Amino acid sequence: MIRPFPVFLPLLLLPLLALLAACAPQKQVQAYRIGFSQCSTTGPWRQAMLDGMKRELSFHPDVELRVVNAHDNSQQQQQQIRELVRGGIDLLIVSPYEAGPVTPAVEEAHRRGVPVVLLDRRTASQQYTAYVGGDNLEVGQTAARYAARLLNHKGSIIEVLGTPGSSATTDRHQGFAQALGSHPGLRVVSQVTGDWTEKTLPALATALKAHPDVSLIFAHNDGMGRGAYEVCRQLGLAKKINIIGVDGLAGRNEGLDLVQRGVLTASVLYSPGGEDAIRTALAILNKQPYKRENTLGTIVIDSTNVRTMQQQTDKMVTQQEDIERQQSLLQRLQATYASQQTILYGLLATLLGATVLGMIAWNSARKNRLINEQLALQNAENDKINRQLVSQNEEISQQRNQLEALAEQARTDTEAKLRFFTNFSHELRTPLTLILGPVEELLTSSPDLSSAQRQDLALVRRNTQRLLQLVNQLLDFRKIEVGKMSVRATEGNLVAFVREIVDAFEKPARLRGVQLRFLAAEPELKAWFDGNILDKVFLNLLSNALKFTPDQGQITVSLQPGEEGKTVRISVADTGRGISDQDRAHIFEWFYQGDQGAVAKGSGMGLALAQGLVRLHQGQMTFSSQAGQGSTFVVVLPRELPAELRSIEPAAPTLLTLDEPEAIPTDFGLEADSVTTEAGSETLVLVIEDNSEVNDFLARKLRTDFRVQTATDGHTGFRMATDLIPDLIVCDVMMPGLSGLEVVTQLRADWRTSHIPVVLLTARNAPEQQVEGVQAGADLYLTKPFNPTFLLESVRTLLTNRARQREHFRRELSVDLATVAPSNPDQKFLHDLTAIVEANLTKTDLAVEDIARSLGISRMQLYRKVKAVLGTGVTDFIQSLRLTKARELLLDGTLTIAEVAYELGFSSPSYFSTSFKARYQISPSEFRTLHIAPQH
């Protein structure tokens, strides 16, 4: 029988267990590592941002903050962001120096699953988790409204701008100007440029002397406001002129102090946002609700509230000091508690062990039974829980697999759509070629056309070119999407480049009575830029401006340096209807078509393409617009570009790139199609083109000057080239079976055809595709649509160059050495041919068929190859080689002239003498007498 369990033992254990539970370590709070990439720590405002972060983190001692300083260097900031991510952080806070250059590193961190909080400034991408920062536009508007109240809505103002090109400068100026537009009695009479630092501002003194009626100065930060006060004090105007600054920081000679001392009339608060950034970051890490866009508010600090603001700041500093003292005391108490806890654990463990041993010895039977029952129940409960967990895991796994499959399907569908979209765009190029080519030829070579016919043809050409431009925009969109568009910049005069584009719009603008003005701050501004990219940017901007500007309106294109000469600012302003509020947020989205009023809707690609190309060029494009007053688009470009974006040569000299994609193959037969040749022409041109219409068009254009043979696929074309040995080949790139690049490679590898000039026709315009054509051995690279006259002139030029090369080979063979060093396929052919002939010189009956058989080709192939390389026949070549060898043997006095003749395969000495004199205008005996000294 089991004895009942004594009552006093549980009563004894309860306080011990409660004490152990109270002393047990609490569950540790999750520790986080936050990386902060600061563009610079220079200046009180940036230091206030960091101090705010530290104040907020003092409530979270388990959070580690890693701060790196980029010293206002975008390249260094990119590298630091990547190092922070590789070092293992839970969240990244970034305050960018420049939006564009830092964007790739931020996007890379976001793709790797690291949450990104942008602080104060944005990047050029939407790939971030949250944004925290002030609204500089609102700061400018607040300053303008306060100035209006202060001056009773009338007066003259001088604006002291921040660093040129800075987003803060642009937005504060824009907000100030917009708000002043509601107060016609207020006007900005002058602007002075600063650089965010306190200085004497000599330009301000000049402006004040030129405008003695100025009653207020708006400085873009408190530091420049203090500098403005020093200038006013030196001129005796300190009590007359009100000064408004921006920042409102605490501390000696900062905004609050300057307002209290009367140096500044007011300061507009621009919060550094350090505390808000940390709060947002912790909300993200702890999976709590948070706002993606956190715009910090602003207020005006003046004599009415500056004391209250200062008291709040002082109180906050005092509270922060109290918190630090309490944390220090808490750390000491925790250390004492930890040491005492260890001792207490030891005592409690000893007491509990003794008690447990007594209980086990007294009631082992009862305890064993209860334990077994509990274990059985626990095992049953564990099995049930395990089954539930397995079921839940399987369900989660299935859902994850479904999500992955859906995501993969979405990526596949998107890629298929883009591929179809690109191929469809490519397919448009062949019919455009067949339209534009004949129209161009009719307009340039048909003098009998009536005026109405010329107008109709010009209309066809204009609309064909418009279709071609749309296709090019579609293809540029695809290149940007897949990252195939690259910058190849050269140094040049950006003023002249932009002026040429503006001049192209002068006539259409004049026809509508639109005044088109071009204003350049300097006659020449050198910069590194890619003309092919910027040409598309400014053509789109000017086309839009002309499209939306009413008759008798005005378009102004201005160009000026910025940021101390490091950038160039180009603006295109019009007096059109402006951009509606609902369209502004989507104006740079692909294929977005907003409310365009009575104007015909466009494709929705122009502005999106322009912005993508500007970003690719490491620039920025912004816009401003007012309803009924027009729009202004501003492009800011760096004057210097990294070495990897620079091109040593302006363009590849042997390539003609007219920007077009690959041709779409068609289903035509593979048999060669002979074209009737023009009588009297000896030059043979082989056309290899799978599109029957383009093939026929090329043959008709070339047939006027040359004999033409055609093939409709690469295999047939190569076979005809080796059989016919044509003088020139015109070949398409994209063909079924054997592509044009493969045809060129095989032609160059075969010594029978290695000498033939090749013109490639292609729908591909990417630089790497053009390089492939040149590397394969093409002599000319033309893109569709092409000008037929240009094609004919190019063919004539290539044939002329080939004739010069033949003359060069003939001069090589005319020297005393009868062999040619094989440095290329043509010279290797001559080397092999010369070796075969020299080995058989003694044969009087040496025939062309024998030589062709030794080379493994037909008699006709040998004849055309020799004719193409040397411009002479095979028999003439053999005779020339024998006579060249004869000069060597005649200098050997041991052989008679007759022996020399027979040694070289001449049928008789008289025939040898006749041939030698015809070649060198001297008989063999006279040659020997002239070159061998008489024996004494």
UniProtKB/TrEMBL annotation:
<keyword id="KW-0472">Membrane</keyword>
<dbReference type="Pfam" id="PF00072">
    <property type="entry name" value="Response_reg"/>
</dbReference>
<dbReference type="InterPro" id="IPR003594">
    <property type="entry name" value="HATPase_dom"/>
</dbReference>
<dbReference type="InterPro" id="IPR005467">
    <property type="entry name" value="His_kinase_dom"/>
</dbReference>
<keyword id="KW-0175">Coiled coil</keyword>
<dbReference type="InterPro" id="IPR004358">
    <property type="entry name" value="Sig_transdc_His_kin-like_C"/>
</dbReference>
<dbReference type="InterPro" id="IPR018062">
    <property type="entry name" value="HTH_AraC-typ_CS"/>
</dbReference>
<keyword id="KW-0805">Transcription regulation</keyword>
<feature type="domain" description="Response regulatory">
    <location>
        <begin position="684"/>
        <end position="799"/>
    </location>
</feature>
<dbReference type="Pfam" id="PF12833">
    <property type="entry name" value="HTH_18"/>
</dbReference>
<keyword id="KW-0812">Transmembrane</keyword>
<feature type="transmembrane region" description="Helical">
    <location>
        <begin position="343"/>
        <end position="362"/>
    </location>
</feature>
<keyword id="KW-1133">Transmembrane helix</keyword>
<feature type="signal peptide">
    <location>
        <begin position="1"/>
        <end position="24"/>
    </location>
</feature>
<dbReference type="Pfam" id="PF02518">
    <property type="entry name" value="HATPase_c"/>
</dbReference>
<keyword id="KW-0732">Signal</keyword>
<dbReference type="InterPro" id="IPR001789">
    <property type="entry name" value="Sig_transdc_resp-reg_receiver"/>
</dbReference>
<dbReference type="InterPro" id="IPR003661">
    <property type="entry name" value="HisK_dim/P_dom"/>
</dbReference>
<dbReference type="InterPro" id="IPR028082">
    <property type="entry name" value="Peripla_BP_I"/>
</dbReference>
<keyword id="KW-0804">Transcription</keyword>
<dbReference type="Pfam" id="PF13407">
    <property type="entry name" value="Peripla_BP_4"/>
</dbReference>
<feature type="coiled-coil region">
    <location>
        <begin position="375"/>
        <end position="413"/>
    </location>
</feature>
<keyword id="KW-0597">Phosphoprotein</keyword>
<dbReference type="InterPro" id="IPR025997">
    <property type="entry name" value="SBP_2_dom"/>
</dbReference>
<keyword id="KW-0238">DNA-binding</keyword>
<feature type="domain" description="Histidine kinase">
    <location>
        <begin position="423"/>
        <end position="641"/>
    </location>
</feature>
<dbReference type="InterPro" id="IPR036097">
    <property type="entry name" value="HisK_dim/P_sf"/>
</dbReference>
<dbReference type="InterPro" id="IPR018060">
    <property type="entry name" value="HTH_AraC"/>
</dbReference>
<feature type="modified residue" description="4-aspartylphosphate">
    <location>
        <position position="732"/>
    </location>
</feature>
<dbReference type="InterPro" id="IPR011006">
    <property type="entry name" value="CheY-like_superfamily"/>
</dbReference>
<feature type="domain" description="HTH araC/xylS-type">
    <location>
        <begin position="831"/>
        <end position="930"/>
    </location>
</feature>
<dbReference type="InterPro" id="IPR036890">
    <property type="entry name" value="HATPase_C_sf"/>
</dbReference>
<dbReference type="Pfam" id="PF00512">
    <property type="entry name" value="HisKA"/>
</dbReference>
<protein>
    <recommendedName>
        <fullName>histidine kinase</fullName>
        <ecNumber>2.7.13.3</ecNumber>
    </recommendedName>
</protein>
<dbReference type="InterPro" id="IPR009057">
    <property type="entry name" value="Homeodomain-like_sf"/>
</dbReference>
